[in-house]
Amino acid sequence: MSPTFLPLTAGQMIKLFALPTLTALILLNSATTLADGNARQYDIPAQSLNNALMQFAADSDLKLLLTADTVRGMTTNGLDGSMTQAQALSKLLQGSGMTYRFVDAKTVTLEPVPSNFKKMAVVNEKPEPQSNKNDTGDGQMMPKVTVEADSANPYDDPNWATDPYNTDYTRPNSTTATKTDTPIFDTPASIQIVPRQVIKDQQAITMQDALNNVSGVFADHSSQGGSFAPDTFLIRGFPTQNTGFTSAYRDGYLSILGGSFSLANVEQFEVLKGPAAFLYGRLEPGGLINIVSKRPQALPYYSLQQQFGSYNQFRTLADATGPLTHDGSLAYRLNFEYLTSDSFRDFQFTDRKFLAPSLTWRISDKTAVDLDFLYQNEASRPDPGLPVIGGKPDALPKNRWIGEPTDRSSTEYYATSVTLKHQFTDDWKAAGRFAYTKDIGIDNFQIFPAGPLDENPNSPTYGVLQRGYFNFPDSVRDTYFSTINITGKFKTAWLDHTLLIGGDYFNRKVGDSRTGVFTLPGDPDNTPPLNLFNPVYGMAGFDASKLPPPFDPFDSKQDWWGIYLQDQIAITDKLQLLLGGRFDEASLQQGTDPEVIDREFSQRYGLLYHPVPWLALYGSYAEGFNAANSGRVLTGKPAPVLSQQYEAGIKGEWFDKRLNASLAFYELTKTNVSVPVKDQLLAARGFVDLVGEARSQGIELDVAGQVTPDFRLIATYSLTDAVTTNDRDDSGGLGNTGKRLAAVPRHAGSFWGTYDFSNLGATGFSSGLGVYVVGKRAGNNENTYDLPGYVRLDAMLKYSKKVGLSTVSAQFNVQNLLDKDYFSTGGGSGYAIPASPRTFLGSIQVEF
Q1: pTM of the full structure
Q2: Tens digit of pLDDT for each residue in 527-541?
Q3: Does domain 10-156 have CATH number 3.55.50.30?
Q4: Between vectors from CA 618 to CA 614 and to CA 619, what angle results, nearest 5°?
Q5: Residues in the chain with pLDDT < 50?
Q6: What are the CA-CA distances from residue 123 to residues 45, 64, 90, 93, 140 (Å)?
Q7: Could you report the per-residue pLDDT of 580-589, keeping only the tens digit for each?
Q8: CATH of the domain spanning 234-847, picked from 2.40.170.20, 3.20.20.70, 3.40.50.360, 3.40.50.1000
Q9: Would residue 242 be called left, alpha or beta, if left means φ above 0 and alpha means ψ between -120 and 50 degrees?
């Protein structure tokens, strides 16, 4: 706070002016004396002063003492060029009313400039000649400043997590696991985050690219035949798909679409392992993927990027954000993507247009509103994979197409949401959200494999595949979602509570227009077979006039609502308890089938203990609930999927929380598992069999962060033992009991690391290397064939340079550097999805 001045004489004014001037000069001299006198290259863009100071401290190997409140709301023009530490600090702090003081050779602190001197604490900005000696200026030699860590935690500034210039591979907090923005280190659950910088360094374009960096998460097309749900995954052995479509959570609400998710506006992925029904309602038990979107920022940021790569891939990205009012109360963000690409697979392509504008309006210091809109148009050719011949998934060239060149799938997706947040007091706040999405299947046509396949090499029809006809010309899916959460902090006796009370409602309708035609081999339309070894395309002999009429309208409706209560209790500074419960009612109606209604109470308990500040031990129990994914069963009544999980784990943080690791041990059981019936026509109409029970148990290790100021990494390992534990077949036998779940490797691991060479004299250069190891997997739940394991190497080289007020970056990535042949996953029913050979991806990006 500035002092109050009284009228003074000229002499008093001189004395008052001279004293702070002398003090400031002494401080500056002290700073220069203890600071490293060597000049070094700095490239820190214009941004908030807090974030710039954090980057300066890391680049300079200094320990900087400050709190975010000291410089909150201040900005800086950044640094560009060669200068000493003293010059760099002075330039960053220019006009801020702050100066610096070296406590010792390893530590610098910020202090307010004495009154009347705030505009005079400026040093010569011209870089001084470099010296080979660490000379303090008075001939005394000082050791080079090397510090154990950078300064106060930059995440004290709530804007740092979403700052466009944040290059961290970690995030300390997550709302996905508890909905209360709890530090991950204090959460008795396994949750991993893939932040934007990892996505950027790897030039990840698909969700699979990004989620390769999370233990126990694998691509899964087996549940949908590999054609209609490209972004479905297995977490701890169980699929994430919901009712046959790509599904993930976006900013906390369920997002279901017929295409793939764009990463253009993704801030980070948060993956919560194990049952999450106690907070989110009906879910598959393996876990939840939450896509956290980029938010409007108070400081202007603009980015334009052009990517170009193998198979005629071109991708244009634009990102713009900043304030719309002088006081910054209204801010916007706009993300755009245009992607077009062919494939190593014959006839396959992707064409996507994506636009996501958003607004944040801070009505007052206690109330804010977020408005978000998203539009995506995607056209592609669904890939059913390759058939397994003689138990070998690689019997055919990996480019071979088993459908027709005219196969197609086009979707349009709209999403809009409104979020209102209000802070009642320092301890109590509320947030409510309403979201609406519309997913339109414009044109979906496919000639698909329908078996049988002649696998006898001595047969004249060896390799001839029977095929069927599928056509859904139009389908509309409308989804409504609303939720409200009230969070409060209070004490009872010596216990500190963080209480969450909430509820949500979900409604999804598939329009009456979703009618379709589906035929199998032998039907009058005469869909032609295909010789896989000598394919001839063109549908010779096909008679469209003999197609059957569309089957019954496939309209369906899902409704569910739930209420939940959670209490996070700090028993002591070291011991924390989590208690939670939720009641759900879910209903599903398909076609003319009777409505199926399920009700369930799910609960969760967790205990976490910090024996030392950098270590956490935890244990938890969680239950899961997913209402019947289909209302159609041939015999009996549809039953909800239930699950329970026991988990124990260890978490650690090092280097001032810049590096973290988690190790989890779990056992997860799922009952009332449903799989499509073997009759393909009935399966297409939603009929399933309930096969009993499956169990997954394993170990997962995740490590991420910054080991040195120049070296960042993210690494994983998982051991997953996932099997069917109770099944039956048509004859009443054991079916798949004891067999491995499809597409789940027992062992898998990954490593990705980047190194910045600027401090070695190669200013602006950085490189990255990735290793991905996946063990042998069962190709299907029957275990009739295996997908071989593989090791894949990726690499990256990047150069960035400051050009005026902009930063220009050129980046080159290689995926599958050694050009290994492998399969990303099984396609179910004897099919496998081949992975890309060696691919190149370059980009030019301008940021300012």
Answers
A1: 0.82
A2: 889 999 999 999 888
A3: yes
A4: 175
A5: 1-34, 115-152, 223-228, 512-514
A6: 20, 20, 6, 11, 22
A7: 999 999 888 8
A8: 2.40.170.20
A9: beta
